[in-house]
Amino acid sequence: MIGFIVAGLVIGALARLIKPGKQRLGIVATLLLGLVGSVIGGTIANLLGTGGVFELNVLGFIVAVIASVLLIGVAEGIAGGRRTSPR
Length: 87
What we know:
It contains three helices and no strands. It has about 90 residues and is mostly helical. Keywords: Cell membrane, Membrane, Transmembrane, Transmembrane helix. InterPro entries: Transgly_assoc (IPR007341).
């Protein structure tokens, strides 16, 4: 389980590096989204029969990074919509 958490944190950091542009999310939110992305990646890999949800494999890792990048983009879109620019 600790390995899964560490992998999720690494995936969140990678997703932050991959996503282009200025990012408005804090590092904690990014890392939490990396954990969520790693669960999504593990679940998809499990459904495809390449391993368990908490088992680290290449397909699960790739899907987790892609899911994390998408999650960060969605979260930034939601957070950006709430902010108003000063006039």
